[in-house]
Structure formats: C-alpha cells, structure tokens
C-alpha cells in the first residue's frame, strides 16, 4: 500500500561521536572489572595476570575492593570522571575532597531521565518517598536500587575517603608499573578510531568501534562518548548521562601491539572467514532476496538443519546477518562497509 505523507519531512535523528581516553578511566574500569564476580572469569586476563594483580594489592586495598563489590562504588568513580577532564590522580583526588555532601551525592546518582532528575533533588533533601520512587523506576536493574539506597545513607566523609583510597591504591599498584604500555595502547586505539570516524555515519561507526553494539539515534541523545579500556576486555560497558550515551569499549586487538599496522581488526577477519564458504554465500544471497527462516533455508539448500544453523551462527558472529523473531535478515551496512574496512586496514600506517 502506498503511503500518503501529509506532514513536514523531518531529517533523520543523528548524534555526534566523541572519543576520550585516560589512565584514570582505565583505573576506574579496572576496579569495576576486578570486583564484578559474575564476569571476572570471562575477562581476557590469564591466571598469571590475576596472580600479579593479587600480589600487588595491599591488605587495605583488598578491603577497599570488598567495599566496592558490596556497594558498587566503581559507579561513583566513573560518574566523577565525567565531571572534568582530570590531568592526573592528584587533580582527581583534590576534586573529590572539594565536593560538598550534596554535590557528591548528586554526581554519584546516574542520569535516570527527566522524572529521575526531579526525584534526585527530592532525595537529596532527605525524601524517603523519592528514594522509594527511584528504586521502583530502577527495579529491573541489577544493582541500581541498592546503590541508590547506599548513596542516600552513606557518610559522605567515609565515601570520600574510600573513593580516594581505592582509586589511588589501584592506580599506584596496577596502573603506574605499566603506565607507558597502557597509555600507548589507549592512545593507539583512540587514534585508530578517530582516523576511521570520518568514513562512517555515527551509528555505523559506533557498531564498528564497539565490535557490534547497535545504537541507532534517539531524540534524547545528541552525543555518544566512546572511552577505550584494556582491562575489561572483551566487554563493553554502557552508561547514560543527560543527552549523552557512554560506551566504555574494549580496545581492538590491533591496538595492543606497537606493530599494530600489521594486525587486522578481529571483526574484519571474522567477516572474510564467514564469506569464504560457498554455502554461506548462498545463504546471504537467499536472505538478500527475502528474509527467511531456518526451515526455509534448510529446504532450499537441501542441507541438514544442524549444518545450516552452524553456517548462520558464523554469519551472525560476523555481524553479517541478524535475527528478527524466526527470520534471518541481512545486515546491509556490514556488507556495504566491507570494502572500506579492508581499504582502511591495507592503507593504515
């Protein structure tokens, strides 16, 4: 059926992309990673890495990390880091010391939408009703309800002392001994991403930079902030600021080595491997002509369902195909961008 348009034509929503990096972000994200017990076994860290981290931490630091794990104060550290571009650990610590009780608690509570901002103001005046409402708004979140209650009740001097001790302790024990290496990795990745940014639409770039996160434009967000990290690999962590979506993303493999120009992007390799098979190419062409189900593909290809499912899994891992309910859909942008991604790799210095 044809569509009769009677309204004013509106331009597609867009956002800008900004990339920031610093060892302070790496420190805070390291604290977040090492205290996330549900994900710690999945991190790209060897047993030797874990041993070295454990041996480097004092008894007091281990107690501080227990406090982080119990109260999710890594979130407070990240919230503070969004307030200014701190030059070093000393400027971060001085900033924390300078904050009043109201200022620190306001910063510590993440952006929860317009309604949440109103409730935050009431909460900071001591309203238990506001706390109850905020906990209800965030009831489906893994830790925010208990985190909000913690921030509401905590002694501000105790919180300040903890934030300074845990950030300083981690930075001095884990970051400083590897400062040159870590800073080089983060800066290499930032430079790589900034060079590629001009070649993509913002949402395409975010998907490429984060190795697959799809974040289409939305009216309330005017900027996406990308912050690279090394220790939390392979995970992306997301957060919300007012008008800003934040992705703390895992640095690419090619950024880890100083011979990075010879190391291809992991997703680029996956995509060309996925395309290097006759049956998978057939599947792509069939999906291009019409979205299809697993059963339809099995019938058309005259292959076993297990075999076709295996091929689809490879294509999905390479982000060439997505699934919508029972149907498989071609990711057109991924196909369109392949020549550009290959060209970028071959010509990068």
Automatic annotation (TrEMBL):
GO terms for molecular function: DNA binding; DNA-binding transcription factor activity. This is Winged helix-turn-helix transcriptional regulator. It comes from the Bacteria. PROSITE patterns: HTH_ARSR_2. Residues 260-349 form the HTH arsR-type domain. The keyword Transcription regulation applies. Pfam families: HTH_5.
